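Follow-up to my earlier ticket, as requested here are the two runs.
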Amino acid sequence: MSADGTLTIAPAKLDIRRVGGRLGAEIAGVRLGPDLDDATVQAIYDALHAHKVIFFRDQGHLDDDSQEAFAERLGSPVAHPTVPVKNGKYLLELDSRLGGRANSWHTDVTFVDAYPKASILRAVTSPEYGGDTVWANTAEAYNRLPPELKALADSLWALHTNAYDYAATRGTVSKEAIERHRTVFASTVYETEHPVVRVHPATGERTLVLGHFVKSFVGYSSQDSRRLFDLLQDQVVKLENTVRWRWRQGDVAIWDNRATQHYAVDDYGDQVRVMRRVTLDGDTPVSITGERSRVIKPEVAPHSIAAE
């Protein structure tokens, strides 16, 4: 019982095995699903905040419905703002046969103001080789900046948009993929100004808000923005600041979308890779001076609509 008389739940003890020096842990012995007890759900959340990305093997019992139902235990699922839902109410399908190859560093959906706080990704079909995903710790990247660079980052704001140069973020891309990006992913153009350094509402950490949705830095030319972006982004994606996961069918990864970037490695040729993702509704970033992110386009953002 807490001091105010409300019931508190002691987190369960999990079998947690670190898989990276600065982020990443595998949790064994947990069968994910909507019927998990409250103590285990709290322990999963605590592990997520501590390790930034957590992995679960052998979750082949999950289907689309139970993945969504499990997600509801961790927060409020929200559909992608532009990509139509194929299965369930909120699931985003990432199918390599349909252009689902996000081989560039990003944090999910930062082109909106209250971007997702977490993402839950399930491997439906895994290639025999390749197709790993890599995550980077944006809190640790900030912590390791030199003092002068920290001070600069603290003062910067960046414009994020879904109307970015899709082809420029990828080595080889088909005309069909470019057209799909334009007509589906960027069907409604979003632009949001975020502080480059936000305060994590759950941990109090300062994290860098960057990734491929950044178009420019507020008050800087395109050329200077590119230099600033490379300078800061390079700190995020240093190999020492990353963890890499080799997928097997039935694996689930959950990451703190307010403290990470990720990159799906496109090295599996014409093999099939199918993933399904649920994102959890987030909060509007707040800078170290208390300023909130600003919506530029659309002026009134349409709320994500779940499929009927």
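Run two:
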Amino acid sequence: MVTITDAEVNLRRATADDAETIAALNEHVQRLHLQAAPEQFTPIDRAAAQAFFATQLAGQDAVAWIADLSGQAVGYLYAAEAHRAANPFTIEQHTLYVHHMAVHPVARRQGVGSAMFAAAETYAWTHGLSGLRLDSWLFNEEAHVFFQRLGFEPFVTRFARNL
């Protein structure tokens, strides 16, 4: 049970040792995704999620932050540098791609998500990256409002057709 009072958001870089914490925090967003699109998402499997995050965070490309309030982990942001070579149609791009971001429901609207994105932006800036990128499912309108409040703008639409 997480109980939060007015507190300052504290951030730290996550390591593979934080995989269990991140897997637990991920369950809220995984549940949202599973309820909205069960044909796209797997049931919650904390052990599998923990193994995934441990592997990713042990690698060279991943970067993540854990946010806490009052000493309790309440959010995480998991990202990786994305490098795309130039081709005849698009320019070379070096960005920080945010794969996952979750804030425990009781800690929302307390600056946790904003603090994590500020850390990601600082990381991108200091590593010479040109920006942050992310994607979000259409059903997650609350997240869209949050991302736009942070200055993100929609820039591509992806279509799907199941066979």
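The only thing I checked on run two: The longest strand covers residues 72-84. Let me know what else you need.
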